[in-house]
Design goal:
Two copies of one chain form a homodimer. By secondary structure, chain A is an alpha/beta fold. Chain A is 30% helix and 21% strand. The first copy, chain A, has 14 helices and 27 strands. In chain A, strands 14-2-1-18-27 form a five-stranded parallel beta sheet, covered by helices on one side. In chain A, strands 10-9-22-23 form a four-stranded mixed beta sheet. Chain A starts with 19 loop residues before the first strand and ends in a 9-residue tail after the last helix.
């Protein structure tokens, strides 16, 4: 019943003394790789192009900066203590390895409140419910109600040929009455689940349940559309419980930096990776000019979109897989407000408002509830919407976020203070949100990268089925450490096959 | 669109100088009443029978004690820093007044993680899924899948006479495909939503989706029964976002005590409440013997089940309403464990496991994630199950919790350290969990208590439609402060009608 060992157990054996490993990229994967290899005695060096560690695991706070392609340098002016997670902002409870490293590195966690029935669906310019703030609970419970009513009707009128006993059919009907909140006539007429227009209180105030939306109105306003309706929270990776690092997700990166900081050369931008007879030779530039580094083994965690622009002598299969890699276009904007009107005026504490306009989503902060100021994510969008938004100037992105956001929260106009936007596909050293594969490209591209190209190993979330998640970085680090250690131990004749 | 004033706005006007108000009960309602009346200048005294404030708002920690009827005194031996909320443990995001007082009193909040798809349903001794740990996500997504498949079939075979356009019907089908996670043939075959047997990871490990449970098995194992299936989280008051006070819910009580502590006589057990021509006279006992107190007005927050045993000269209607009051039987047990095996071994962080046996529910702590020790609620049961459990000796309650709990978590046996149980209906000064009303008793009983009996006002959660919630105590306090202040101001000729 219990697992023999937790999935985060990791005890590779070997002696890395005298072996040099060059790690390209000081993100979570690169730093974790160095952390684990160092435990085994390997001499590691990390080259990191940015002046900070963490890569996409980045929390924007006062002084954070970014320069996107074709745009001026942006430096965050957020108040002290204010921040937002420009990269990963959520940890699923089943990403054991991520949670394990948080524990091992002493990073405190708090709940990321991904599910909030009190946030909104907002359908701009569509149908009878257009431009209204519809609480998530209204859509959820109205749809459960209507669908349960219809199925109850269908089954009780014996219109479905169910492979169930008569008793079991009675139990399905009972389930539907409960699931849908149906009335005594098995009809859905609204219930307290969807909220009150007058709250229950003292004396004779029993509360007044709000009326249900009409099914036809929900449909024609687009609120049942799969890309809008919140089936997102059904997704395995988005189911509660979810976590975030207290104080910003970059606390994970800085905790790793405390362990391997002395091995990292920041501001070191790799220009070429060459396999040689003796090992691997990497050229890079830093503030003092052109540099070279050599090692027995190189572990490359550079995103494929960035790697594609470097010189290398990889095999044609590998080269092709790199050049044709596909990454998602995605962007976020953090908006700092004078006060938390979403909490104070609208009782929205964390969670997500979904909208059909270019914002796609508004994320409310899951930290420092009931404090004075706050930063929310004014948009978090993908693909076409992210490309469109990313093509705007910084001030026009802010303008878009404020104009569209004010349709939902008119308080925006009075309370807004500062913004900072990130378009990941336009950000050098990242050039995309995360790797996107189809079942075809898993075969035609991904597989070519699974084996090392001579002395060069590929690692990072793009080398996993955990794309977009920090778990991908950690799992990939473990995997590459195992492979490299097995290979080098074998070379020394002290080979012990160790399972990952 | 925005409210003119938040619902917690409260600005009664009046001058209470020279007027004495005697408040019976130092729970949340009694202390809040004193806090607000004191702001208006009234002279308040609170009589509290226990040696602590807070009433049912009680967190059990080292040294906490309770003596239930017919049982020996129980003193908690929990480790320093360990606690559980024996009374209210959750604050809904829409209980604005509770949240308002937390803010005003400086009580920090954190998420109470009420929804956790990684916790279990556990059906003991029933059907083919008997005694198996079924993850909440499995039941949720299997049932959504099967029900959506059935309705899709019914609609697409034109068996339902829907009052919808052809386009809208197509959209309902599209919704059902997304809601149920149906496959290309519109059948439910399981999906990643319900979890993996092999998790997605690095290399070729794409992950292996677990097989769905059979609908007939879910039904005959009772997992779709309304009293077992988790429709609880659909309830308005149990929808996320939910909060708890950091460090224990009693932090709210102790924060109030900081404001009104000097007005409270602890260990003062009321024996009689007599309306007189001049006001009201209350007898009570304390360590020094029999005492008397008099005042212009008395606000009685004593639970009706306790009040029923006191001497008084209330009208017959009021007396009858008190004597026939119904309160829920309910109990909890806190179990301290050496390590958080539910987190470490099973990735359960907060949330609730539901079971059909006497435990009813296991609550996992929503605090101090990834720390070493932890206290979970081994049971939280109601009505017959609570009466049965409450009738056990303390050691037999612990035995029940461990034996039944070990069916779900065999780690119980090795990791258990200490327990503390509370049976609220057997606890003097409470004698029940919370007031239970039917629509009939709202008319025949409750209404008699809404008006003061001469100089005596009744207040507390039992005087609201917010039974079981701290919000009831706060709302009732606001309500009675308004009424008393209006009456006394009127008497002085300075009457200004103030709306609550």
């Amino acid at each position: 019943m219990l697992k023999a060992a937790p999935s985060y157990a990791f005890n590779p054996q070997g002696d890395g003394k005298g072996k040099k490993v060059l790690i390209l990229g000081g993100g979570l994967c690169g730093m974790t790789t160095a952390y684990e290899l160092t435990k085994l005695g390997y001499s590691c060096t990390i080259l990191e192009a940015r002046d900070r560690v963490g890569g996409r695991c980045w929390s924007v706070r006062k002084g954070s900066h970014n320069t996107e392609t074709g745009l001026p340098k942006q430096t965050a002016q957020l108040d002290d203590g204010q921040y937002f997670n420009a990269g990963p902002s959520r940890i699923p409870h089943h990403h054991e390895l991520t949670l394990h490293y948080c524990k091992e590195l002493g990073v405190p966690l708090q709940i990321y409140n991904n599910v909030n029935e009190g946030a909104y669906y907002f359908s701009e310019g569509k149908g009878p419910l257009s431009n209204q703030k519809i609480k998530v609970r209204e859509v959820h419970n109205d749809m459960r109600g209507y669908m349960s009513e219809l199925l109850h009707k269908s089954i009780s009128q014996d219109k479905l040929d169910l492979a169930l006993s008569k008793d079991d059919i009675e139990k399905v009907l009972e389930y539907l009455r409960a699931e849908g909140g149906l009335d005594i006539d098995n009809l859905y007429k609204a219930s307290a689940r969807r909220g009150y227009t007058v709250a229950p209180s003292t004396g004779n105030q029993a509360g007044k349940v709000a009326e249900a939306h009409r099914l036809a109105d929900l449909i024609s306003s687009g609120l049942t559309d799969p890309d809008f309706y919140n089936v997102a929270e059904y997704t395995y990776e988005l189911q509660m419980t979810m976590f975030q690092a207290v104080g910003g997700m970059d606390k994970i990166a800085t905790a790793l930096e405390k362990k391997v900081g002395t091995l990292i050369k920041k501001g070191a931008e790799v220009t070429s990776i060459i396999n040689t007879d003796a090992g691997v030779k990497v050229s890079y530039t830093d503030t003092t000019g052109k540099q070279e580094a050599s090692a027995d083994i190189c572990i490359c965690t550079i995103p494929l979109t960035v790697l594609s622009n470097l010189n290398h002598n990889f095999s044609s299969d590998v080269s092709r897989a790199i050049d044709y890699a596909s990454y998602i276009a995605t962007g976020k904007i953090g908006l700092q407000f004078k006060r938390r009107f979403w909490e104070e005026d609208e009782q929205i504490y964390g969670g997500i408002t979904h909208t059909n306009n270019d914002l796609t989503q508004i994320f409310y902060p899951s930290n420092d509830y009931q404090s004075n100021k706050g930063v929310l994510l004014g948009y978090y969008n993908f693909n076409d919407k992210a490309i469109k938004t990313g093509n705007l100037s910084l001030i026009d992105r802010e303008k878009l976020a404020l104009e569209k956001g004010a349709l939902i929260h008119p308080q925006y106009l009075k309370e807004f203070e500062k913004s900072f936007s990130v378009s990941w596909h336009k950000t050098p050293c990242s050039l995309g949100g995360w790797a996107l594969y189809t079942s075809e490209t898993r075969e035609s591209m991904y597989k070519a990268l699974l084996k090392p190209d001579k002395q060069v190993y590929f690692a990072g979330e793009h080398m996993t089925y955990l794309n977009a998640w920090m778990a991908g970085a950690f799992e990939s680090a473990r995997s590459v450490v195992t492979e490299v250690n097995n290979r080098l131990s074998e070379q020394r004749g002290e080979y012990k096959k160790v399972d990952k």
